[in-house]
Specification:
Blueprint (H helix, E strand, L loop, with lengths): L1 H12 L8 H18 L10 H17 L15 E4 L20 H4 L10 H4 L1 E4 H23 L7 H4 L7 E2 L1 H12 L9 E6 L12 H9 L3 E4 L8 H19 L2 E7 L1 H12 L1 H4 L3 E7 L7 H7 L10 H12 L5 H4 L3 H10 L8 E4 L7 H13 L19 H16 L18 E3 L9 H4 L12 H27 L1
Parallel strand pairs: 3-9, 4-5, 4-6, 6-7, 7-8, 8-9
Antiparallel strand pairs: 1-2
């Protein structure tokens, strides 16, 4: 195979012979130029790789045009298809001279061609034509894999907005900010005729304070509020069933309808519950807020888990499998369900019911140097002992989540040019037919988790106030929806 490439590539670089068949030459040049135009747009996000990728694609195209033998359909076991290639030193000869011999015995292979001189047998090299076909296929496979790896999730980000068959969204940012300002002035409008269910996101079982401050805040206002205790590291379909059972239990115990607010994967799980079990929930659920939810999918999950992405080259999938399954006692499918492929498949089979009032909320992480410095400082000051100690003790390690989210956000900006909260791009967090809240305040994906551990500055709303404003907006959206339906019926 190495000799084959060394023989062909030098011939590729020389101008075509004047004795070559014009039709064949035109076909090769047309294919070459067409591929050149197509591959000139490869890897726009990484310009340094564009030239190399284009050359690989053009080389693969040339091999595809030149190497396969037309009309080859296979030979019996006792025969062998052979192709003669001219030696590399003969530059003035025609581009390729090939012939096929079907040999039944060893003696027929040793006979010279009657139309040529006996020395022809020593001037060429007999190579099975399958080598040509396998070589061309391998070259094309390498180019496609390189294309897929470098492109990553660039073609998937924002697919919900590009799908012409999906309904559009409505901007509710201005009204949200008005409600939030009223909330901070102690003007509360959430009705006590509803029950409020908070659905936390991935790894919430290992964050005992997740939504605890918000639940206490709601309770002080005399509102019934619960935190869903589903296993967040389980698959979306399993959590959807558990949330459905939780809603039914709340409804039959209080005879009040439920407003759902899901953060991160919790929003995906709650939306899946409405999509899969709407006949059971339509009289029990009043609406849904998805806060920083990966509704369309996540480039982080896709790049780690999807075949052909960067995670394949550094064994990240195996690392995540050990982390989720062995350490956290969860299911790797919880992460796989957040990839673009899985989200597209699920949403096309199980779309949200059109009558459900929906509010989408997404933010952008701050990537200022002061935030990133915290992560750099931790990496310089932290040290870990890998060898087991006789009297080992557990030492809690505090990870600066804001710095980690900022680093992830910077990677997504550098690779895809997309703004995100560190894990979810703003485009993928907008649910079709929803009222979308797009605040300018810089909030990363983990803000709803660590904000419960500290007080926000006096001029900034905290997690509980933001959740109250989002649910208040959802109540208004539901009332408006009911009014429109009533007017339509009349």
């Amino acid at each position: 195979m190495v000799y084959l490439l060394c023989t062909i590539v030098p011939n590729m670089m020389e101008p075509p012979s004047t004795q070559e068949d014009p039709s064949t030459s035109a076909a090769v040049e047309d294919g070459y130029s067409a591929d050149g135009v197509e591959d000139s747009e490869l890897f726009l996000s990484v310009p340094a790789l564009n030239q190399a990728a284009s050359y690989l694609a053009q080389t693969a195209s040339y091999l595809t045009q030149c190497l396969p033998v037309p009309g080859y359909v296979g030979l019996p076991d006792e025969g062998q298809e052979l192709v003669t290639l001219p030696p590399a030193s003969v530059a003035s000869a025609s581009a390729q001279t090939s012939y096929i011999e079907s040999a039944g015995t060893d003696s027929s292979l040793g006979q010279a061609d009657h139309s040529g001189s006996p020395s022809q047998e020593n001037s060429g090299h007999m190579v099975p034509s399958r080598v040509f076909q396998n070589g061309a296929s391998m070259f094309q496979g390498l180019v496609e894999r390189a294309r897929k790896t470098v492109r990553g999730s660039a073609d998937d980000i924002g697919w919900l907005q590009r799908d012409q068959g999906l309904p559009t969204t409505e901007d509710g940012t201005t009204r949200f900010l008005e409600i939030l300002d009223s909330v901070r002035k102690n003007e509360h409008k959430l009705p006590d005729s509803l029950v409020y269910l908070l659905v936390p996101g991935l790894f919430s079982n290992h964050g005992p304070l997740y939504f605890v401050k918000t639940k206490s805040y709601f309770s002080k206002m005399g509102l019934a509020c619960h935190i869903a205790k589903n296993h967040s590291e389980s698959s979306v379909s399993k959590n959807a069933r558990e949330i459905t059972e939780y809603v039914e239990e709340i409804y039959w115990g209080s005879r009040k309808r439920v407003l759902l607010l899901g953060h991160s994967k919790g929003g995906v799980d709650a939306a899946a519950a409405l999509s899969l079990y709407w006949p059971e929930l339509k009289d029990k659920v009043a609406g849904l807020v998805l806060a920083q939810s990966l509704y369309g999918g996540s480039p982080v999950a896709s790049d780690i888990l999807r075949e052909g992405q960067l995670g394949d080259y550094v064994r990240l999938r195996k690392v995540m499998e050990i982390l989720v399954s062995e350490v956290l006692k969860g299911d790797l499918q919880a992460l796989e369900d957040l990839t673009y492929g899985r989200r597209k498949e699920f949403l096309r089979q199980h779309p949200l019911p059109p009558e459900v009032p929906i509010v989408s909320f997404h933010t952008e992480a701050s990537i200022t140097p002061s935030v990133l410095t915290a992560l750099s400082l931790m990496s310089r000051t932290s040290s870990f002992r890998l060898l087991p100690m006789a009297n080992s003790t557990r030492i809690p390690v505090v990870m600066p989540l804001s710095a980690a989210m900022a680093a992830c956000s910077q990677v997504l900006v550098a690779r895809y040019g997309e703004k995100s909260d560190g894990l979810v791009t703003r485009k993928d967090a907008e649910v079709p037919r929803s009222v979308v809240v797009r605040p300018e305040r810089k909030l990363d994906h983990a803000w709803m988790v660590y904000s419960s551990l500290k007080d926000e500055p006096g001029d900034q709303a905290d997690t509980s106030q933001v959740c109250e404003a989002l649910l208040t907006l959802l109540v208004e959206v539901a009332q408006k929806r009911r009014h429109e339906m009533t007017m339509k019926d009349e």
